[in-house]
Amino acid sequence: MVNGLESASKSLTLNEKKIGSLVNNLANLNSTGYKRELPFEQIMNSNGENTIRKNMLDFTQGDLIQTDNPLDLAINGDAFFVIAAENGDMQFTKNGKFAVSDEGFLVDNLGNKVMGQSGEIQLLEDFWQKDRTVSISTNGEIFVGKNFIDKLKIVAVEEKADLIRCGNNNYKVSNGYFEDLEEDQFKIAQGYLENSNVNPIIEMEEMIRISKEYESAQKMIQYIDEIMARANEIGTI
Asked: Count of CB atoms within 10 A of residue 23's CB?
């Protein structure tokens, strides 16, 4: 009976974490480049005991949304843009909503610099001259007018489980390992953004299923508690 109470209690805790992941997914339904969290899972460890595995991320590609903004970029393929954070960290993102800073650098929406093959990408006077247009090829080459500026640094992270969210739909890797991709391994789409890969119907169906599991665990605890109370009453007679 004590084991049953413990199992039901763990189920409540697990389902609370699952609901937290689902709520976070739904809150980011329209966030550019957001990758949905897979609900926590209860797994059996080597000692035969149930443990809770940390949440994982689903890196399935989201739909591409056309914006016609020349600085909006999306990646077709299993790849990331590279961002230099203010603290010096190299971060990775599918959020290609970029802009040009007052200093002429290509930056994300927090002002962090987007990295190219030659380092930080600076457009300088070329960008501001009248009638100059920015064009970015499918392999990531950046031109202002006819002038080549740099090529986007596009990388892959083989072990996605090593990626850690660090805000703004950016990630960093716990072991620091990533690799540059060849041109035929991705395609850049200029004037597009990658939408969140959250499907609201799937999330709501999962929410209903988990709510039922949570309710069952609650009833189980209540039932066991009543039995134990009656047992105590009988023991005192």
From this structure: 13
Residue 135, Ramachandran bin (φ over 0: left; ψ between -120 and 50: alpha; else beta): beta
As a residue count, the chain comes to: 237
Residue 124 CA to residue 235 CA, distance in Å, equals 85
* CA-wise closest residue to 55 among 31, 23, 91, 79: 23
If DSSP codes are grouped into helix, strand and coil, which group holds residue 227?
helix
Whether the predicted model's global pTM rises above the 0.70 cut: yes
* Per-residue pLDDT, 222: 81
Looking at residue 44, its pLDDT comes to 47
Name the one residue in this structure whose structure tokens are 């640094």.
153
Amino acid residing at 124? L
Determine the Cα–Cα distance for residues 171 and 202; give it in Å rounded to an integer: 24
- State which amino acid sits at residue 138: T
How many other C-beta atoms are found inside a 10 Å radius of the C-beta of residue 37? 20
Max Cα–Cα distance, the chain, nearest Å: 95
Beta bridge partners of 219: none
pLDDT band for position 15 (cuts 50, 70, 90): confident
Q: Of 124, 158, 161, 117, give the one whose Cα is nearest residue 141.
A: 117
Give percent helix, percent strand, percent coil of the chain, each to the nearest 5. 30, 30, 40
102 close to 128: Cβ distance less than 8 angstroms = no
Sign of the CA dihedral with 156 first, then 160, 162, and 163 last: positive
- pLDDT tens by residue, 168-199: 889 998 776 889 998 889 999 999 999 999 99
Residue in this structure with the two tokens 């930056």, named with its chain if needed: 107
